[in-house]
């Protein structure tokens, strides 16, 4: 039998005002409704109501992970440095990693994610292809020392995460483990009531399906994704690919130099010449493994250095500094143009063959007009490097894309053999020879999901939970004196006996108005009020989301709720 | 419907040999049976079988904590320094505390226990006596940087603990919260199948019931407790009180000085004089807040400096050093006697009025005989300060005590107002004035309980779990070929459909002998074998603990197991 939770005893003090430091809706409401309290920057205490929502999400995650045959384990959160040093992540994580020493001076870290340790566990446990495939998961406390922990539990420094890992001997096996996880994630997010999109997370260069993100659209989200209003295309903005501009065959006049003093920016240049910024060619200088390289994009676009770095990896991309110009009279700061330039020239596909541009003339205070791609200069490499903007064409259908904010709630990744190579994870294959194992890695932000659901479902009155994860099924309000309180407690006992999770507000000396406001704020899906007609055994049943209410006898209300 | 776990897929590689570094039975067996693996010193990975046992114990703990009205929360494990500095524990914990800095240089710790943070939560949440009493708990990962992490999960540096805290306005309320916890702990330990004793944890000076330990007798335990074979008295050895020796009225001769060269120790002295060590009086010199003080105990007993310190707290007790003798010609090293001594003299109650002793004569190479308490010297304070030994009288009935080894699995503590004073935790009382809150703190070592149960229940064949916490209800063994495997899987499905948790060993190419050995090692309470008589639909049901076995039809076996 479920227990009735009395509000008079519940550790959930509601607040009328938003916490001063809260910016997002979920942060404000989860604090105001008594679900969480801040212990320190990015470190949150989950109070009873919050813990119940967290547990409900964890339960759904467990059920769906178990259903695909994944096995639950629990690895330490405090981890030795060595495996992370071997994988390179001890350094790569930079300041994001919490590092510490033990009493003997040994180096440790607080695990941000556990690829290394799972690889070691499987290396210890599995020796033959017969032991694979295997999928392991844990729901565990994770750590990241965020530079600006904010948005409440949406981005904490300590958080709950479900991380799982698949181990296969073949690429086909990995694809299958990945597909199982993808399907399980769809079930999980649907069950917990999240509106979500699955988006490609990396560019097509690595294969469309090898990493996807599950995003919950929400204004408070820190991720931006591109969304086609016409077809079902959606992608992380970094993964959107531009489907090549068409080469132009129009005849252009010869290159013409223009006197352009005091035009240090694209804006001033465009205004001076009376042309749109999109008619100008911006040439960004970077160093690629130390070699100065120019990157040309239309003047109205920004270079996405992340995208550029990903295209050129493992080469290191840096911005040029003033010193880099010292021995290079050929590079005239602010007036660089691709024509006659003696360095590598990378261009965005929009800078298509045959197109003409206004660009630097490689002389101070001078620009050039009608500089034509393929006639006046050559592009060494075409790479899609601009920041995606709303209205850019959908790679699938060409329709202008929308850009939306979202919260990343899940990420699935075909890792391949990176970690298996690091730790030499082989099993004996069917032919009797060692076979290198291939891995997948899959994560769900469990505590973040609480905030994401709050963001998507809350209204002006407060939180508004989907039933499967709500902290209770019914919130019973005693709106009156002894008679109402007695009826409220009695109905609560009946509902609990029928297996429902019941919260009853029987606080003495608290007005019905305050109780109603708290009930709306706390957001249990059904609110049952023992009010004026209690003497007749009539109660009011209200749907928290729709606001619909009806008067019912106690028996009818119990029947309705337990149906 | 429960799922059937197939051994062919289970991440639980059994080992025939004990791990080289394992000293205790539970450490050996939990590793050999594939329940846990060591990730680093004192840091353990819980594999699927171990995780199930851990979860089962957690479930029982939750049910009993909920039953007494405690509310579950989850506080951070990574905690800011300030509250622990305020309570003094940032320093007091010494090397046991894992300390770290964040990217901004702020000081943090990994929580060993959470009194400070719970006090802050309640200060934030509760303002009136009407909000109390309240009991909060969490099941959480805790950290202690043990000097010598050993004994497997019995003493890890990261471990699972249930910690709870009660908050009351009155001493009577605290006593009630304490009693509720005590009763819940009895239910929990009984349900999870532990043989345990409740022992007083501190001396009677602070009140007999204000701290008790739950100890699981086991040879691998690191705690020693005194146990009366005649009555129900049991106590931590530090808490055993000596019920005063009776004053003697025998007439003794006058003090006689003896030439005793080369007798630097009690042993050499006793041998030289031909008397038992118990006839000599040992005088230990210590400094109490810097003042030299003598502590007299019978020569065959040791001073328990912990007990002495507790008696004299908050005074600081230190041992004397050679320098302390430099300006004190009255103190003759190795030959100190209480007679004529000009310093404070503390004695164990065994040094009773009227008793005569051989002791130092305060002259080099000289002892004195027939030095009588009350005639030749006075005792300033009688304090029970000796290390308890087997055979010491039971404080309750006088019978000689046994000393036994045990594992501490729970601790309940009436803290009083220490933390409430630190954080000024007051609520508005019934009279409208602030009332300081009084607290209790209660812990159960959840991961340690796994090892404690293993220690108490294992036999020569392996682990042997009580049903409530076993990783499965039934271990089905396919002992044969296709026919047996088919039957084993079929029976397993039937049992799972009836709600049982089933592990089925259907590993192809593994001999029945290996499967039997593994089943005994893994320790599920019931073992069902599909063997020689499978063609007749007859299986063998074996009780893991008693070894009793009987042949049954499949229908009979299913009925028996699901009864």
From TrEMBL, chains A, B:
It is an enzyme of class 6 (ligase). It catalyses: tRNA(Pro) + L-proline + ATP = L-prolyl-tRNA(Pro) + AMP + diphosphate. GO terms for biological process: prolyl-tRNA aminoacylation. Residues 52-466 form the Aminoacyl-transfer RNA synthetases class-II family profile domain. It comes from Streptomyces corynorhini. The lineage of its organism: Bacteria, Bacillati, Actinomycetota, Actinomycetes, Kitasatosporales. Homodimer. This is Proline--tRNA ligase. NCBIfam families: PRK09194.1 (NF006625), proS_fam_II (TIGR00409). Its main location: cytoplasm. Keywords: Aminoacyl-tRNA synthetase, ATP-binding, Cytoplasm, Ligase, Nucleotide-binding, Protein biosynthesis. Catalyzes the attachment of proline to tRNA(Pro) in a two-step reaction: proline is first activated by ATP to form Pro-AMP and then transferred to the acceptor end of tRNA(Pro). As ProRS can inadvertently accommodate and process non-cognate amino acids such as alanine and cysteine, to avoid such errors it has two additional distinct editing activities against alanine. One activity is designated as 'pretransfer' editing and involves the tRNA(Pro)-independent hydrolysis of activated Ala-AMP. GO terms for molecular function: aminoacyl-tRNA deacylase activity; ATP binding; proline-tRNA ligase activity. InterPro entries: aa-tRNA-synt_IIb (IPR002314), aa-tRNA-synth_II (IPR006195), aa-tRNA-synth_II/BPL/LPL (IPR045864), Anticodon-bd (IPR004154), Anticodon-bd_dom_sf (IPR036621), Pro-tRNA-ligase_IIa (IPR002316), Pro-tRNA-synth_IIa_bac-type (IPR004500), Pro-tRNA-Synthase_IIa_type1 (IPR023717). Pfam families: HGTP_anticodon, tRNA-synt_2b, tRNA_edit.
């Amino acid at each position: 039998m479920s227990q009735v939770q009395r509000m008079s005893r519940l550790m959930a003090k509601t607040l009328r005002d938003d916490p001063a430091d809260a910016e997002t809706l979920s942060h404000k409401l989860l604090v105001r409704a008594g679900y969480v309290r801040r212990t320190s920057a990015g470190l949150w205490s989950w109070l009873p109501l919050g813990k119940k929502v967290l547990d409900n999400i964890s339960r759904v995650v467990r059920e769906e992970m178990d259903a695909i045959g994944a096995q639950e384990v629990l690895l330490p959160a405090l981890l030795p440095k060595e495996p992370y040093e071997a994988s390179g992540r001890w350094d790569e994580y930079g300041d994001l990693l919490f590092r510490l020493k033990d009493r003997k001076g040994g180096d440790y870290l607080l695990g941000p994610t556990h690829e290394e340790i799972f690889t070691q566990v499987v290396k210890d446990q599995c020796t033959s292809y017969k032991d694979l495939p295997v999928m392991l998961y844990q729901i565990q406390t994770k750590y990241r020392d965020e530079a600006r922990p904010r948005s409440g539990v949406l981005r904490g420094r300590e958080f709950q995460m479900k991380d799982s890992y698949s181990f296969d001997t073949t690429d086909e096996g990995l694809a299958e483990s990945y597909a199982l996880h993808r399907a399980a994630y769809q079930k999980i997010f649907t069950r917990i009531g999240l509106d979500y999109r699955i988006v490609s997370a990396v560019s097509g260069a690595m294969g469309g399906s090898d990493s996807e993100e599950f995003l919950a659209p929400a204004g408070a989200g820190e991720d931006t994704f591109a969304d086609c209003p016409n077809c079902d295309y959606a992608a992380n903005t970094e993964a959107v690919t531009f489907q090549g501009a068409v080469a132009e065959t129009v005849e252009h006049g010869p290159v013409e130099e223009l006197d352009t003093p005091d035009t240090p920016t694209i804006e001033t240049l465009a205004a001076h010449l009376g042309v749109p910024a999109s008619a100008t060619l911006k040439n960004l200088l970077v160093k690629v493994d130390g070699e100065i390289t120019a990157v040309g994009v239309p003047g109205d676009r920004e270079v996405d250095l992340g995208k550029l770095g990903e295209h050129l990896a493992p080469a290191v991309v840096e911005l040029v500094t003033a010193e880099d110009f010292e021995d290079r009279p050929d590079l005239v700061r602010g007036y660089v143009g691709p024509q006659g330039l003696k360095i590598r020239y990378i261009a965005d596909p929009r800078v298509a063959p045959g197109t003409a541009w206004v660009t630097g003339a490689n002389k101070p205070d001078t620009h050039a007009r009608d500089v034509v791609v393929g006639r006046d200069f050559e592009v060494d490499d075409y790479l899609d490097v601009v920041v995606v903007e709303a209205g850019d064409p959908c790679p699938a259908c060409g329709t202008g894309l929308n850009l939306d904010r979202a919260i990343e709630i899940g990420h699935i990744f075909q890792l391949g053999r990176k970690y298996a190579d690091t730790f030499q994870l082989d099993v004996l294959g069917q032919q009797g020879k060692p076979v290198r194992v291939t891995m997948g890695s899959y994560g769900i932000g469990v505590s973040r999901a609480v905030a994401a659901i709050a963001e998507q479902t809350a209204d002006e009155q407060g939180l508004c939970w989907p039933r499967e994860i709500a902290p209770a099924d019914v919130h019973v309000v005693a709106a009156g004196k002894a008679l109402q309180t007695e009826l409220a407690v009695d109905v609560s006992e009946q509902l609990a006996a029928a297996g429902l999770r019941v919260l009853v507000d029987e606080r003495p000396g608290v007005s019905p108005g305050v109780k109603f406001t708290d009930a709306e704020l706390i957001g249990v899906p059904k609110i049952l009020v023992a009010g004026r007609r209690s003497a007749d055994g009539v109660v009011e049943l209200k749907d928290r989301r729709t606001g619909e209410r009806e008067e019912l006898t106690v028996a009818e209300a119990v029947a309705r709720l337990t149906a």
